[in-house]
Design brief:
heterodimer; A: 113 residues; B: 422 residues; alpha/beta; FAD/NAD(P)-binding domain; 10 helices; signal (chain B); TAT_signal (chain B); FlavoCytC_S_DH_flav-bd (chain B); Sulfide dehydrogenase [flavocytochrome c] flavoprotein chain (chain B)
Chain lengths: 113, 422
């Protein structure tokens, strides 16, 4: 028995709408990189307080914008090896592990997002 | 079940569903930050960074305030008051958050509601409380809020800062200045000693060779003590005298009309031409009333996220929080704000908690062109905040090093106030 015309139309419409909902949902929720991009860590943000980003006139520490991650990592290791307390950075770096330094350098380095 | 929707209705539903979902995402969580100092303002900024869609409301009773850092330079007449003046509404523009200038009357930590004097009740998913400190008026006989202006502490950024400045400026040579330093813990641990240093520097500039500064202390040690005392002897010989608690240095009674101060066990008072009495401190009364404090009258927190141990969903940062071994400083509050905001965002978004690592540096000026500092790097170890590394200016530092640190201190002030207040 043939189905009433209106019912068939509704089923087709329902399928179309489900597809539309799925499509729109994909657009809304699956923008490339949205889920993967991670915000800066609190520690990196603390570094940025003095090593201000794109605010050269306010920067207290040396600008990090021109340094790549490897250079920042190397400098942190040099600070850690210093025995004097004369400036702030050796005091901080002395307690940092290689892993923490690497993560910081990756976040703060020139290629960081 | 019979579906009888028309194509138009289905199409409308299809378009509406993502729209309403997106709207809910756009609306985001509602977060209230109470207090727009270094902790609160920084936290509002970081919350905006981590939660772009959140409704963030920053509430403070003051439209304009003076920062604690560098206020001693103003009191000594070495810096202008404009340098330490900030405007709360600037935070709204700089950090894209809503700002309400109103007095918070109560915080209900269970309902997560904040009531303000002029604008009623505000509900939130999370509340960050950064209210600062209150003075204890029960420790020094004869001293109370009504007569404190006569022996101004100048510790809360109000009119006492300029009042103390004006009275210091009016002193004649030969004056005796008494600074009463409070017991631990309190806001800005090196503050009383920096104040003495800068007053001595100002007296030297004025040619007041016969004036003396007495620090009457309620404790037996203080931060950077060896450095301060070495530099006092070097720069201001015989001008600054420190009396520790062990030698009955604690001020226990005052007569503000006669400018008399009694040290513990003293039979005779000290006559002061100018007294700055800094009382013992607690977390701000607002935090006490909100049941956020323990028997110490400070706010216990989980250091991983600076969430109150007494009420879930309520976070306490800055001077009011128990965060030892971190000192109660603007830098510490700014660091805690960053960790707290990241932790709130992680919790709301169902992401892993951030690593709890914190930084602090306290600079202290000895003169306009000389400073010393202490720094610490902290992390949570076994649910306790611990020092991973720390350091202090070299005892044998020369004038060049002291000058360099003074330049760093001023640069730090510019960057941290920019970071916190825009």
């Amino acid at each position: 028995m043939a189905a009433p015309r209106g019912s068939t139309s509704t089923r087709v419409g329902l399928i179309q709408c489900v597809a539309l909902i799925a499509g729109v949902a994909l657009v809304v929720f699956a923008q490339p990189g949205r889920a993967e991009s991670s915000p800066p860590s609190p520690l990196a943000q603390m570094c940025r307080t003095c090593h201000a980003e794109a605010q050269a006139e306010f920067a207290f520490g040396a600008s990090l914008d021109s340094l790549d991650a490897n250079t920042i990592f190397d400098r942190l290791r040099v600070y850690r090896s210093r025995s004097d307390d004369g400036s702030v950075m050796p005091r901080f770096a002395r307690g940092m592990s290689d892993q923490t330094m690497q993560q910081l350098a990756a976040e703060l380095g020139r290629s960081a997002p | 079940m019979n579906i009888t929707l028309s194509r138009r209705q289905l199409l409308a539903a299809a378009l509406l569903l993502p729209a309403s979902t997106a709207s809910a995402r756009k609306r985001g969580p509602r977060i209230i930050v109470v207090g727009a100092g270094f902790g609160g303002a920084s936290c509002a900024r970081q919350l905006r960074l981590y939660l772009p869609n959140a409704d963030i409301l920053l509430i403070d009773r003051q439209a304009r305030f003076l920062t604690g850092p560098f206020s001693n330079g103003v009191i000594a007449g070495l810096d202008e008051v404009a340098m330490i003046t900030r405007h709360t509404r600037d935070v709204a523009t700089a950090h894209r958050v809503r700002v309400l200038i109103d007095e918070v009357v109560t915080i209900d930590p269970v309902k997560r509601e904040v009531r303000t004097a002029q604008h009623g009740v505000h509900r939130a998913d999370r509340i960050v409380v950064a209210p600062g400190v209150s003075m204890r008026w029960d420790r020094i006989e004869g001293l109370h809020p009504g007569n404190s202006d006569a022996m101004p502490h100048g510790w809360l950024g109000g009119t006492q800062v300029t009042g103390l400045r004006d009275r210091f400026a009016a002193l004649a040579d030969g004056a005796r200045i008494v600074i009463a330093a409070p017991p631990n813990p309190y806001r800005c641990p090196p503050g009383p000693y920096e104040r003495a240093s800068l007053m001595a520097a100002a007296l030297q500039r004025r040619g007041h060779r016969n004036s003396r500064i007495l620090i009457a202390d309620a404790k037996d040690d203080f931060t950077k003590r060896a450095l301060f005392q070495l530099e006092w002897d070097r720069r201001y010989p015989g001008v600054i005298e420190w009396i520790p608690r062990a030698l009955n240095g604690e001020v226990v009674r005052v007569d503000t009309q006669r400018h008399h101060l009694w040290l513990r066990d003293a039979t005779m008072p000290i006559q002061a031409d100018l007294a700055s009495v800094i009382p013992a401190q607690t977390a701000a009364q607002l935090a006490i009333d909100a049941d956020l404090t323990d028997e110490t009258q400070w706010c216990p927190v989980h250091p991983q996220r600076f969430e109150s141990t007494r009420h879930a969903g309520i976070h306490v940062i800055g001077d009011a929080a128990i965060a030892a071994p971190m000192p109660k400083s603007g830098f510490a509050a700014n660091s805690q704000a960053k960790l707290c905001a990241a932790a709130i965002a992680a919790d709301l978004l169902g992401k892993p908690m951030p690593k709890a690592m914190l930084l602090n540096t306290c600079y202290s000026l000895l003169d306009t062109d000389a400073a010393i500092s202490v720094s610490g790097y902290y992390a949570v170890v076994a649910d306790r905040l611990s020092v991973l590394s720390e350091g202090i200016s070299a005892l044998g530092g020369d004038a060049t090093q002291r000058r360099s640190e003074a330049e760093q201190a001023r640069a730090w002030y510019r960057t941290i106030t920019r970071d916190s207040f825009g």
